[in-house]
Design a protein that fits this description.
Distance between the termini: 41 Å
Shape: globular
Number of helices: 4
Largest sheet: 6 strands, mixed
Number of strands: 32
Strand order of the largest sheet: 10-9-12-17-14-15
Helix content: under 10%
Structural class: mainly beta
Length: 558
């Protein structure tokens, strides 16, 4: 019998002065690191991470993409599966990494703390990689966003007056903005490589509010994994990764560099919104190992104007590229790594994913469009977090008004979702804590339908506690009579976060076989704050091994 390894870790959430873009500010960190420490485990390991909160505000940590089989208490979203960790207190997250291998990540799941509280979570496989290329080295590339001001104030201002948030001042690669920003030549990520060798890049989009393109000048990338699930390999000049998503690519250093010995790697936003956004570019360098150049601190003189095609980057509005890239993502579907997509379903839920414009309350100041307030919703339900964690209420069978299980399973009033003229309709939403509840083992299909309210937009929807298969995608309105006939039920991509196409829809399927309460939300943080969220309750199964484990003794209280 194989002995499972125990992985212990200690996280201290604390402030640290960090300098970026010409100024220094207090930044919320874990263990004083930005980004936070990488957690590296093996498939099958038991994990214990003790989190101690050294700040005055609350905090939590979410292990993004970890399925948390029967251990929802360790999932982390505040007021969904736990009350937050208050100042001066600690909580130990305990879980086992089962049937997963690859690149995931962790982040705070309280307010907008994940702007700086995040890091990589690497699960090394027990079996060799299902691709033959020998890997010289591997390294994470984590995208983030940097605000010169206080991120809490950005969120508070947005929620107080109902306007859009201030855009970030920079994107970052591993916490470093790169040479296109002021005072940032020294704050540039540089990776030294050997010509002829192949490298595994573990790419994570931890940005708060932006989908991002990524490319390396003159090089091709081979996609081999998404969201810790192997894919059929394919080559591409660039990738698009939405907030919450991860992508592993192979890169072979097979080019001949110029006298600088370097090639630029860069990321900039995929634009699908009319809202103000950070239209800047973060960059780093691949430095080819060469005794004449490897000690140069600033590899290149940066051009005065940025030409994206010179560096393999698609244009910001290139939805055609995103569509073609997404169409190439397929599950490996091999005997060793089968594709277990449900061929039949027990329940279909159609939910409209929408931004909303709420009338301004009397005697209030509102700074949204036309003097109203921005909100967001699923099936016109704008999610409100309760005062006690939903998992506690559900597990303890508390009869309170913290939540209800009457989330509408289809739009209450069907309309031309993507053809409606923006801002021409009544876009007020309803507020509440409505969840969907299903029996253990339900084969569930959820159709996520975008709208043109305010504007069409790509929405990265994340489901906690489960992976799912993206069986269909399209533009316009989902046609229940015709579109299911086009589903891919052979090798659809398996993920934990789906980028719903701008002005379109995505259909996902999965078996609800993880008992507990699981958050469903947009991974654009501003949209979650506005209420673009819901939840899924999976009932206990008939066997003890199909039931939620009891709560830990140190579970924080509200």
């Amino acid at each position: 019998m194989e002995c499972l390894i125990q992985h212990y870790g200690l996280f201290v959430v604390e402030w640290k002065n960090v300098t970026r873009l010409c100024s220094t500010k207090p930044l919320l960190t874990v263990n004083g690191e930005y980004p936070g420490p990488t957690i590296a485990v093996h498939e099958g390991d038991n994990v214990e991470i003790k989190v101690t909160n050294h700040i005055a505000d609350n905090t939590t940590i979410h292990w993004h993409g970890i399925r948390q089989l029967r251990t929802g208490w360790a999932d982390g979203p505040a007021y969904i599966t736990q009350c937050p960790i208050s100042g001066g207190k600690s909580y130990t997250y305990k879980f086992t990494v089962q049937y997963q291998r690859g690149t995931l990540w962790w982040h705070s799941h309280y307010a907008w703390q994940r702007a700086s509280v995040y890091g990589a979570f690497i699960i090394h496989p027990r079996m060799p990689f299902p691709f033959s290329a020998p890997i010289q080295d591997e390294f994470p590339i984590i995208f983030g966003e940097w605000w010169n001001g206080d991120v809490d104030e950005v969120e508070n201002e947005m929620m107080k007056y109902g306007g859009g948030p201030n855009s970030s001042d920079a994107y970052t690669i591993n916490g470093l903005p790169g040479p296109f920003y002021p005072c940032s030549n020294k704050d540039t990520f540089i990776k030294t490589v050997e010509r002829g060798k192949t490298y595994l890049l573990r790419i994570i989009n931890a940005a708060l509010n932006d989908e991002l393109f990524f490319a390396v000048a003159n090089h091709t990338l081979t996609v081999v994994e998404i969201d810790a699930v192997y894919t059929k390999p394919f080559t591409t000049t660039a990738i698009m990764v939405a907030p919450g998503q991860t992508t592993n690519v192979l890169l072979t250093a097979n080019q001949v560099p110029d006298s600088s010995g370097t090639f630029l790697m860069a990321a900039w936003p995929y634009l699908t919104s009319v809202f103000p956004f950070d239209n800047s570019t973060t960059a780093g360098f691949l430095r080819y190992k060469n005794t004449e150049t490897e000690n140069i601190k600033h590899p290149q003189k940066m051009p005065s104007t940025f030409e994206p095609n010179k560096y393999n980057l698609p244009k910001m509005e290139d939805t055609k590229f995103v569509t073609e890239f997404s169409d190439k993502l397929r599950s490996l579907a091999s005997p060793q790594y089968p594709c277990t997509v449900p061929k039949t379903i027990d329940k279909q839920v159609v939910t409209v994913v929408s931004l909303n414009l709420q009338d301004c309350p009397a005697n209030k100041t509102c700074k949204g469009y036309e003097g109203k307030r921005f909100f967001a919703s699923m099936n016109n339900q704008s999610f409100v977090r309760p005062s006690l964690s939903i998992l506690e209420s559900y597990y303890n069978k508390l009869r309170n008004n913290e939540y209800s299980t009457d989330f509408p399973e289809k739009p209450l009033k069907p309309f031309d979702y993507t053809g409606v003229v923006p801002v021409s309709e009544n876009m007020n939403t309803q507020f509440g804590t409505k969840l969907l509840e299903v029996p253990y083992g339900t084969n569930l299909e959820i159709v996520l339908q975008g709208t043109s309210f305010l504007n069409v937009e790509n929405h990265p929807i994340h489901i906690h506690g489960h992976n799912f298969f993206i069986v269909g995608r399209g533009f316009g309105n989902f046609n229940v009579a015709k579109d299911p006939a086009k589903y891919n039920l052979i090798d659809p991509p398996e993920r934990n976060t789906v980028a719903v196409p701008t002005g379109g829809w995505a259909a996902i399927r999965f078996k609800a076989d993880n008992p507990g309460v699981w958050f469903i939300h947009c991974h654009l943080e501003e949209h979650t704050s506005w209420g673009l969220a819901s939840g899924l309750i999976v009932q206990n199964g008939p066997r003890a091994s199909q039931c939620v484990l009891p709560p830990p003794k140190d579970l924080p209280s509200c």
